[in-house]
């Protein structure tokens, strides 16, 4: 009696594995791509708090930070990003100096903000939807 598998049996098993991977791997990679970025989640939470405060007071609220630091502040609330902020654009103007800030208005709209982090991550704040999104610079 022979021990082992024939070539045909091995090819069939390999074909089944390839078919299985063909259907599952793209779904795995899409779920990884769509998983929420922690920096974006933290910033969106801070934006929602600033929006709520701006609505309640009727006064524009400011979120501030320092270039070279990971921290963004709003009132007594602080968030830490994964990397330091290297450059900041507010309303298409590159911010000079070390400190920066951007406003959230009572209508829950904001300045247009682009935060460039030291790991080539770019966080963009969309003014009308008041949401942050992320992309990577090549």
UniProtKB/TrEMBL annotation:
- Record keywords, A-Z: Membrane, Transmembrane, Transmembrane helix
Annotated TM spans: 6-25
UniProt KW rRNA-binding keyword: no
The protein's superkingdom reads: Bacteria
UniProt xrefs under Gene3D superfamilies? Glycoprotein, Type 4 Pilin (3.30.700.10)
Xref: Pfam families: N_methyl (PF07963)
Question: Which protein, by its recorded name, is this?
Answer: Prepilin-type N-terminal cleavage/methylation domain-containing protein
């Amino acid at each position: 009696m022979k021990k082992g598998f024939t070539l045909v049996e091995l090819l069939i098993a390999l074909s089944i594995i390839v078919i299985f991977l063909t259907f599952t791997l793209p779904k795995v990679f899409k779920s990884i791509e769509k998983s929420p970025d922690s920096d974006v989640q933290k910033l969106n939470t801070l934006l929602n708090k600033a929006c709520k405060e701006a609505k309640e007071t009727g006064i524009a609220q400011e979120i501030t930070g320092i270039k070279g630091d990971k921290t963004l502040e709003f009132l007594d609330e602080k968030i830490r990003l994964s990397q330091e902020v290297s450059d900041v654009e507010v309303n298409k103007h590159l911010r000079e100096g070390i400190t920066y800030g951007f406003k959230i208005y009572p209508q829950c709209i904001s300045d247009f903000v682009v935060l460039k982090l030291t790991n080539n991550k770019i966080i963009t704040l969309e003014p009308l939807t008041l949401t942050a999104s992320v992309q990577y610079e090549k």
